[in-house]
Amino acid sequence: MMRIALAVLVAVTGCIDHVDLGSDSLPGLVAIDVSPAEQTLAIALPSSPQLVAYSAVGHFYDGATRDITAQLVWTTDNPAPGSFTVPGTYTSSNAAGGHVVIRAAHDAIAATAALTVAISATLVDDSFPPPSSDLFGSDAQVVTDIMKSPSIAYPVDATMFPQQLAPALFQYVHSTMTDAYRLSFGSDVLALTIITGADRWRPDPDVWALIERSHLGATATFEVDATSSTAPATIYAGAPITIAFAPDSPGGAVYFGAKMKQGVLRGTLGSSTATKVYPPPGDSTPTDDEVVSLDGQTMAVAYMDHLRTIDLATSSVIAATNVPMGWAAVSPDGTLVVVANMGMLSLHDTITGQGIGSPDGHIDLPGQMATHPDWSPDGRQIAVTLGNSVSNDDLKGGSIASLAYLGAGAWGPPQVLVTSTGDNDNNYFPKWSPDGGYLAYVHANGPAKDAPTAELRLVAAGGGAPIVLQRASHQLALTTSPILADTMPAWAPGPRPWLAFASTRPYGVVRPMTGSSQIWITAIDFAQGDPSSSAFWMPAQDISGTNTTPSWPPIVTTTAATQ
Fold it and tell me: 101: closest CA among 16, 188, 194, 38?
């Protein structure tokens, strides 16, 4: 708990209830001037909501001018820092800082003003009695000491978070010679300080909302400094990092295989827990390698190593088949499923499980072995891994290829997009981007199974030079590592690209590198040379578990499960 309240208000809309005055309420209006044209509102929390008075002067075709403040519609482009409750009076929410464009309009005639809302606050951990002034006073000496300065363990520099994420756990490594820590979040719209004696800090939902909503599409610095409560004259400064926040949330739900839970779990980015989707309660049969259709309605899963299709609205079985399954892909509309087993591919009806094409849906690839199928968003082709040697767990010499689906179980020949140069040059787990323009995939030097060198890459759907997602694949706190076993990518729904993937990397100080994987997420920006950001740990996971095979479709409405 923190010893100071943030006086957070319920977010209000960025417009006012306004009586329609009609198009002739201001006849002859040709222009509007708004005052003040530019202003900064500084708010030190806790405090009451602050008011900013705006006025508007109308200019008319006959040269007349007069105050028309009360006759205009006042809105903002960013409702998080505040809104207009009455015409011309802006009221801060005290829930977020930010840059705001004020707009005053009458029909098509409008004027704007710029407002910066800058919030400052200091929080003191209730379990840490010494007052902050005794520990981090302005008269203390600030030094950098390799032995005593703390280092940030999570998040990593250049991490991008989405909006509406469950509160992140900020973690840092410290010396035994220090016992007091000052965490600082800084930008031109927020100065937030936390004083604590712990080696980690998780903001409550209101404080976390203050941080993320103050930085819509913007960055902030995060820094941890240390001192000793018995010798507070010296502050040991840690190295700051930069974190970023997207302007929106990717939405949807992430499905993943949880080894400890013996089944498939589903969690959202805004939740701290996940729910088991399949098998139902009382069924402890191991399930593996689940995949969800693009519409979020249908899941294929290996149930006792055989294909089973599931209706995700009810978590009930659609088809229980005797088709051996290693990997699978469900078509975007949920009607077809391609199954890979021991290097062989086959096409099946999702509802009946029957093979489509002859014989038994077998997809003929003369002299070639294939695995890891994935349907394109338009349903016209699949991406696959072609290998010199392929089992359900491993492969050698993996290349990425696409096959056009011609209908009625017929397929075009493979078109290789990424070519392997030998058994130890492996490219695998291809996944189409939501717009069909790129494939994410995994590259490793050596066999694919549990490859420590596995990293994420992109290739254009038409082929071309591979793009290494360096930050997502290798960036750790204060260093980089080539051995994080980054694998099994899955794209988020929606227009802004995000990738979930499995990785054995450490999660700060609470989950050191264990050799078992959990789900991580990176933002993708195709305009950058390295399109990725540093990855964040997906909430809703049990940190003691082993989690794999993410799928990330839209959320579907669920009802009670049936068998």
Answer: 38
